[in-house]
Amino acid sequence: MRRLWLTCAVLILGLTAASASPVRIKDLVEFDGVRGNDLLGYGLVVGLNGTGDGLRNSPFTEEIMASMLERLGVNVTGEQFRPNNVAAVLVTAVLPPFARAGSQIDVTVSAIGDASSLLGGTLVMTPLNAADGQIYAVAQGTIIAGGATAEGDAATVTQGVPTAGAVPAGARVEREIDFDFGSLTSVRLALRTPDFTTAARIEQAINADLNRGVAIMLDAGTVEVDIAATRARSPAHALGRIENIRVEPERRARVVVDQRSGTIVMGSDVRISQVAVSQGGLTIRVEEAPVAVQPNPFAPGETVVVPRTNVGIEDEAGIGLAVVPDGTSLSEVVAGLNALGVAPRDMIDILKAIKSAGALHAELVVQ
Asked: Which residue of 68, 157, 242, 300 is 20 to 30 Å from 261, comparing CA positions?
């Protein structure tokens, strides 16, 4: 276990050292106005192999099916039909920025009734609305579901999620977003991780590359670029040059802990003050071994069960009291923690205790 922890620590050290290299501005920011828009629709999936909605439990499926048939000229008023090869679904998609009418986008389909699987189904033409209530795309196509279900008389096995799937390029854009990007006189760059140092470096890098003061830092998360001052032919030309400028981002000292898998990831700027750590374990074991007591042959009485309990307490030796010295680099911090000789899951508890003691100079993120 200790060898595994040392291997993980070396890997984390290599990853954090590599992340210190400059990256493109497009990987650090979002451009104001260049964003996607969420779309939502309510539709019907047909062609299922008996795995659709039970119409007694999902009356809305019958309603949408009747409405669709009436639009197609089929009169179903007063008729009772209960097929098991249809399912009501919610259809979601993201309209990417600058999407033009006629282009195609991917959609995700999810059952909302009691359908057991969407495998082999076909999504019938479904309008997709945005938050303003307007229809921006229409979806239709064969569903690709990533799960599978097998069942018998006494057992059922399900792998993945067969009640959700995707339709690649299943929606066609019918309406474009009204946004005149070419008329912008300035564009704001929104940092994905706000930081004053990183924002200042972005400002300096843009001004140095264009040899003029076109960018100004507004706050820790925003840098504004004057498009006219760039002397570019259009805002698209200006951002096409700016987004490829490389900047070395500044990152906070952070330790990320995943309690479910026992994974610990440390940033290269993590520091630790000298601290003494003692770690051990106390195990309490209770075992029940009841004994049946019977009377002698032909003797009066009845069989009774006598409880018998064995209780034991084990106190593990632990590591004693160990001193973790000051860490001036990630390698020294890892070496000091490895000297404790504990498993990664126990290391998580030690890191929490060190943070509570004020000796861990980093943000501790527990997932």
From this structure: 157
pLDDT at 156: 67
3-state secondary structure the chain: CHHHHHHHHHHHHHHHHHCCCCEEHHHCEEECCCCCEEEEEEEEEECCCCCCCCCCCCHHHHHHHHHHHHHCCCCCCCCCCCCCCCEEEEEEEEECCCCCCCCEEEEEEEECCCCCCCCCCEEEEEEEECCCCCEEEEEEEECEECCEEEECCCCEEEECCCCEEEEEEEEEECCCCCCCHHHCCEEEEEECCCCHHHHHHHHHHHHHHHCCCCEEEEECCEEEEEHHHHCCCCHHHHHHHHCCCEECCCCCCEEEEECCCCEEEECCCCEECCEEEECCCEEEEEEECCEEECCCCCCCCCCEEECCEEEEEEECCCCCEEEECCECCHHHHHHHHHCCCCCHHHHHHHHHHHHHCCCEECEEEEC
Q: What is the C-alpha to C-alpha distance for residues 294 and 234, in angstroms, rounded to an integer?
A: 98
pLDDT tens profile 242-267: 999 999 888 888 888 877 777 778 77
